[in-house]
Amino acid sequence: MNGRKIKKKKNFFILHHPSFGWQIVFAFLIKILKKTNNDILIINFTSRRNNPALIDFLFDKKSVIEYQSNLKNTIINYNKISYDALNDALKYFPSIKKKIISNEKLYKKLKYQNNEVCIWDFEQNKIIKYFDYKWYDDLIEKHKISHKDLNQKTLNLTKKIFNIYFGKKVLGKKIGSISLRDKVSNYKSDDLRQINNPNNYVSGVKWLIKNKNYIFFNHNPNYDKYFSNIKEVINLSVVTNKLEFYRLNLYIYSINDLFISTHSGSHFGTALFRKKII
After folding, report:
1. What is the 3-class SS of the chain, one letter each residue?
2. pLDDT tens digits, 228-268
3. 207-216 pLDDT, tens per residue?
4. Residues 68, 73, 75, CA angle at the centre, nearest 5°?
5. How far is CA 40 from CA 6, 101, 103, 194, 216, in A?
6. Residue 276 forms beta bridges with which residues?
């Protein structure tokens, strides 16, 4: 890690959640906190289910240390292993450890409240308290994010890339996104969020194209075959440069007029910009 950055900063936040949705949630929360305290360094872990371009999209480089990237494995949660190892190592550096903003401290600083939101936990076989999305939605509305709040260098570059690939195709059209979820575990709640018949979505997309002047981007390459024969659907996988793909994924989330998904964390990417979501 960059020792100079660490010495200069008074506070640190370790962003390490392996899912894309929670990666967005905590990145947004720390972005809110940095409005009042910019002296926070983000120590960023990236896993395969994350978007590796997200932090560069939201923050300038001087605010971030890229600690570790594990993009090739979903079975083993290397992020959790490395995060625990880092926490253990920090015991020997108490002056740094006390500067760490934990998730609990972050919630407290932003006055998190859970108004009795509960879910059934299939592992514990009981009802447990869960994250209160109403509180999060209220924060999104209060701390409105627009393009001016992003990393301008990355944003402008991504705009140019978008216009090169798709500028003429989207001209005069409403932009839609469809981002269907992959199965990532054998956990029961994951099964409940899975897609039984992707063709059900295809019919709706075709209707919106025909009747509402939409052009759609399919963000998940694993569903390309369902959309490849529809003229007004662009499979984002046509962008073969990985970094460009990930940046365009985020940029399109920020400009689309409509976002369609299963119950997936990817919708947080477009919710930040207060777009319509189905």
Report:
1. CCHHHHHHCCEEEEECCCCHHHHHHHHHHHHHHHHHCCCEEEEEEEECCCCCCHHHHHCCHHHEEEEEEECCCCCCCHHHHHHHHHHHHHCCCHHHHCCECCHHHHHHHCCCCCCCCEEEECCCCEEEECCCHHHHHHHHHHCCCCHHHCCHHHHHHHHHHHHHHHHHHHCCCEEEEEECCCCCCCCHHHHHCCCCCCHHHHHHHHHHHHHHCEEEEECCHHHHHHHCCCCCEEEHHHCCCHHHHHHHHHHHHHHCCEEEECCCCCHHHHHCCCCEEC
2. 999 999 999 999 999 999 999 999 999 999 999 987 888 89
3. 999 999 999 9
4. 120
5. 10, 9, 14, 37, 38
6. 258
Q: Which two tokens stand for residue 114?
A: 């859970």
Q: What angle do CA 253, 257, 182 make, to 5 degrees?
A: 45
Query: How does residue 130 score in pLDDT terms, banded at 50, 70 and 90?
Result: confident
Q: Which of 39, 59, 33, 38 is nearest to 139 (CA)?
A: 33
HSE, CB side, 13 Å, CA atoms: give it for residue 126.
3
- Does residue 150 contact residue 58 with C-beta atoms inside 8 Å? yes
Cβ(13)–Cβ(258) under 8 Å? no
Residue at 130: amino acid letter: Y
